[in-house]
Specification:
One of its GO terms (molecular function) is sequence-specific DNA binding. The chain has about 290 residues and is an alpha/beta fold. Among the domains are: about 80 residues, Arc Repressor Mutant, subunit A, CATH 1.10.10.10; about 100 residues, D-Maltodextrin-Binding Protein, domain 2. The protein has ten helices and 14 strands. Helix 1 crosses helix 3 and helix 1 crosses helix 4.
Length: about 290
């Protein structure tokens, strides 16, 4: 078997936490993924994984081997990317972690446009609302939507996102339209479960007002949040670009239109400048320009 391919499969099994998830991500069968790991164990003469019916974990030898393999694969990726840079075209695998709620239809369209412009870059996207350690997870880049970027990472602001308070016409016909921020306490809300608090800010004629929403349901995906609000579940603070058509066509109503939420910054974050290869620069530059348009 191809040892380099086996190493890549082994690393993906560790990242994914199971043979099934790794095989699905790599587009191979579960037995084939297992064969690759067995091949490596025979090559190195040591057991790399503890296998039980419920979970996988690295052995002591497996942890040492995994750390070295991740470093080696990073070097190979950087070498491939550097060669692509010399030829004037970014290339190689670009591993990016993106918040689940941020990966909307608009982002999907931008990814397609990026891939057309840079066909030699293979995007490996990991969707999670948790802040993962980039080096430990083998990520090149993270997209964060926050007021407080992580100080130990190099960050570049690539855009902003504004939240809009909305509801369906049906829900408002049942509950009545709020006349003030204080009225919002009597409405049920669809909330993101990745937020630690239910507090929000709105800037109105009287200044900045902090308020709390009463959550009826919590989800980690804004697309589902939108569908629930459209179905009359309650009110929600949703990204403006996700609901532009709904507002234009009257499927959703903007509540308290004389109040705006402070924009959230969108950052591209990476570990250090030595990791800013052509593929990383191309991704950041492309999305920065796209978000500004």
């Amino acid at each position: 078997m191809d040892t380099l391919l086996s190493i890549k499969v082994f690393c993906e099994v560790v990242r994914a936490g199971s043979f099934v998830a790794a095989a699905r991500h790599l587009g191979i069968s579960n037995p084939m993924a297992s064969k690759h790991v067995v091949h490596l164990e025979q090559q190195v003469g040591a057991r790399l994984l503890h296998r039980t019916s419920r979970r996988l974990s690295l052995t002591e030898a497996g942890q040492l081997y995994y750390d070295k393999c991740v470093d080696a694969l990073d070097v190979l990726d950087q070498a491939e990317a550097a060669l692509g840079d010399r030829q004037g075209e970014p290339s190689g695998v670009l591993r990016v972690t993106v918040p689940v709620w941020f990966a909307s239809n608009r982002i999907a369209q931008l990814l397609v446009q990026y891939q057309k412009r840079y066909p030699r870059v293979v995007l490996d996207l990991h969707l999670t609302n948790s802040k993962i350690e980039l080096a430990q997870a083998g990520m090149d880049l993270a997209i964060r939507v926050t007021h407080d970027p992580e100080p130990h990472l190099i960050v570049r602001r690539i855009g902003t996102v504004r939240l809009v308070l909305v509801s369906s016409p049906d829900y408002i016909s049942r509950m009545g339209k709020p006349q003030s921020v204080q009225d919002l306490e009597r409405y049920g809300a669809v909330m993101p479960n990745y937020r630690d608090r239910n507090d929000y800010l709105l800037q109105g004629p009287a200044g900045m007002i902090k308020f709390r929403l009463h959550g009826l349901m919590k989800v980690n995906d804004t697309t589902l949040s939108r569908e629930l609000v459209l179905a009359g579940m309650g009110i929600a603070m949703l990204p403006a670009w996700l609901i532009e058509d709904d507002l234009r066509q009257g499927r959703l109503l903007r509540l308290l239109p004389d109040h705006d939420s402070p924009p959230l910054d969108i950052f591209a974050s990476y570990i250090s400048r030595q990791y800013q290869t052509g593929k990383v620069r191309s991704f950041i530059d492309f999305f920065s320009a796209a978000m500004a348009s």
